[in-house]
Amino acid sequence: MTTTDLLARCAQLVDIPSVSHDEAAITDFIESELRAVPWLTLDRVDHTLVARTTFGRDRRIILAGHTDTVPANNNDRARIDGDVLWGLGSADMKSGVTVLLELARTVDAPLVDVTYIFYECEEVASQHSGLLKVEKARPELLAGDAAVLAEPTSARIEAGCQGAMRVAVTMTGERAHTARPWMGTNAIHRLAGVLERVAAYKERRPVLNGCEFREALQAVHVEGGVAGNVVPDRAVVTINHRYAPDRTTDEAFEHVRSVVADALGPNDAVELRDAAAPAPPALDHPLLADLVARVDAPPMAKLGWTDVSFFANRGTPATNFGPGDPNVAHSANEHVQRQEIERVHAALEGLLTTGAA
Amino acid sequence: MTTTDLLARCAQLVDIPSVSHDEAAITDFIESELRAVPWLTLDRVDHTLVARTTFGRDRRIILAGHTDTVPANNNDRARIDGDVLWGLGSADMKSGVTVLLELARTVDAPLVDVTYIFYECEEVASQHSGLLKVEKARPELLAGDAAVLAEPTSARIEAGCQGAMRVAVTMTGERAHTARPWMGTNAIHRLAGVLERVAAYKERRPVLNGCEFREALQAVHVEGGVAGNVVPDRAVVTINHRYAPDRTTDEAFEHVRSVVADALGPNDAVELRDAAAPAPPALDHPLLADLVARVDAPPMAKLGWTDVSFFANRGTPATNFGPGDPNVAHSANEHVQRQEIERVHAALEGLLTTGAA
Known about the structure:
Two copies of one chain form a homodimer.
Chain A: H1 6-14, H2 24-34, E1 41-45, E2 48-52, E3 60-66, E4 79-81, E5 84-86, H3 90-106, E6 113-119, H4 130-137, E7 146-149, E8 157-159, E9 163-172, E10 176-177, H5 187-199, E11 207-208, E12 211-212, E13 216-225, E14 230-231, E15 234-243, H6 249-260, E16 269-276, H7 286-293, E17 300-301, H8 308-312, E18 318-321, E19 335-337, H9 338-354
Parallel strand pairs in A: 3-6, 3-7, 7-18, 8-17
Antiparallel strand pairs in A: 1-2, 2-6, 4-5, 5-19, 8-18, 9-15, 9-16, 10-14, 11-12, 13-15
């Protein structure tokens, strides 16, 4: 247990604006808090700060959190009301960062070595990610036996993460004047078959490591049309697919293709636009199993995508565990409960100081 | 029969560029050709020229053609190959304008009074139409008992015209994260029901005045989507409807609404975006019946929309009759046959000089 008022500390971080690409100030603040801590070695790559212990323990755990937020939504100032903190980033994920910062500042003799990572640009296209910059500049800083991402999970273990991909389905046709449509083929009409199949999709719910994943297939964009009096020869629907970690990205893409295949003709196309790989729960790793034992609620599957995937796909088992309700992240009424911050802090402090040997 | 080489005359007009909003030069040319013609009274409203005979005949016929073209498509210069003229506007509708100009210049004693109208801006939004400008500035110039639009019809009578409307169908839903789509409702998925019904539409083919119309219902534009990871709460499909002149615009709109009604929920909307009214065939009018008798091929229905509607909806029976294949209008290989120009000229000359009393 800490005597620090973690809700107030979190409010302090919320009051330092840090929308993606603007993390200099908050990283400076964290660096200033940790610079004098004798058991930490600090390295900074742009606006990502890595603080490591180097006790020569058998194992090393990575505790990571991003410092950036999405843009404000009339909620850029912190407001504490009883045991609730309101404000941008309070859940996603300055409360998690608060916990990591507190542990880094106070846990002077962990039983495992710890790498704390405070990184920039998680809320934007992955090419900007601070983790990628560190990997490029100082890959050795990312070494570890397991990783915990303090993403908002309502203080539960949310294990692994589902993959996410976007697939573009392009339907073709032949232009004609709308007064003589029988001279052509309407590509927008041909979308009906694709949308029907996607709308009727029955998702899998595979259980892995005791965690039930739940896949999803959703059209997220549609466009088509040439002019107000022309039968259109092209229409494109973009489909977002979330897939459990028992499938590879290739397998998941083939699955999406098979769902819409019957609606396609020889000139239509199904293309993978982008993909972020899934991560398995990995709860059988000793460090993560120890953490699971310290949390009352049973672990659940992470349905969204997080940087757990970044670590898992580089061979480091990882899980999500942080304060804050993921359902209020990115919303105007984002907030976090004091109790959740304290529970996450207690579990991780316990892992570092009494377990994990 | 004329001794003028009408194909060469048409080439002359094709070589005067007159893309919509740029009709000054071609109107100047036509005005210069007609200024000295003793049996004509000329009036000009911007770049629309009205040339009238004033013999005090019992009836007055309007012969009208637009001077503008769509933008060039590597076909802005006239090229004559045997009895075919290639080039922008050759079919739509400088060959028709050639016929009207020849009649105006040469028919010195018509049995009906004639109002020749050479007007600007037919190929763009109707608000720019030269006919509307004349109606506003000099409405008396548009008076007449019947009207012939020399639009391309392959030298056949294409009677009346179908109406055209665009209807926007907006489907609604509820946003959610694509990793938890069951928290929302996907508006793009809900489009499937609308598109199915439009694609399966069986059109009416009503026969009016012996002319078979053929209606059409075509999606011409579709759009929807919020972000790559958001279940979209809005999707809009725009539908183009062509309707026969036995229905009013209100009736046709209600018909479109009824086609998609079963796919709609209480928060979805069906809105009329714009409409251009249809025109009945009106072939029983004596002047038009006389013209029909002078054309070998039986009259057909005009499936597209033309300014026949402008006249019909102001109480003047009107029909389409001009050289050029409407299917090559607006295309890179636009062209016209000498024979069609001569046949249209002969029929109209006959109407003015030997019939129509």
